[in-house]
Amino acid sequence: MPVDGARLWTLNQRLLGAVMDACAQELAGCGLETKEFFVLAEVEASPYPARIATALLLPKASVTVYVRNLVAKGFIRREIDETDLRRHRLVLTPEGTRARDRALAALAAEYDRRLARVTPRDRAELLRILTAMLTPPAQDRDRD
């Protein structure tokens, strides 16, 4: 019987939600709410709020609120973008880096607890599958 993509999507979302719920107390101990964590974790890869909103599929207005909170907590700062003086880019502070790393460690530990239920062979297969799903098809790579 074929596996329904929507079912896999739902199971993946539930797994991620369960991991986040299990780590909520650790995130709070880092001074982070769940969505603030996602924004903080995305800053280095996407240093502009609009890019963060796109990457995390969040409304720009929500990202603005999370950024404001993270700035107030001292986890990120805004800097003028040297390549475009009209723009501000976000930069992690040392405190933000520590909070992000502590939160990531808590999430990794919880995810590892769940991965322990799966054989090493199946974990390797999961890695292969997820990597394949995230790799653009050849025709998309050719356009870049």
Automatic annotation (TrEMBL):
<dbReference type="Pfam" id="PF12802">
    <property type="entry name" value="MarR_2"/>
</dbReference>
<dbReference type="InterPro" id="IPR036388">
    <property type="entry name" value="WH-like_DNA-bd_sf"/>
</dbReference>
<protein>
    <submittedName>
        <fullName>Winged helix-turn-helix transcriptional regulator</fullName>
    </submittedName>
</protein>
<dbReference type="InterPro" id="IPR000835">
    <property type="entry name" value="HTH_MarR-typ"/>
</dbReference>
<feature type="domain" description="HTH marR-type">
    <location>
        <begin position="1"/>
        <end position="135"/>
    </location>
</feature>
<dbReference type="InterPro" id="IPR039422">
    <property type="entry name" value="MarR/SlyA-like"/>
</dbReference>
<dbReference type="InterPro" id="IPR036390">
    <property type="entry name" value="WH_DNA-bd_sf"/>
</dbReference>
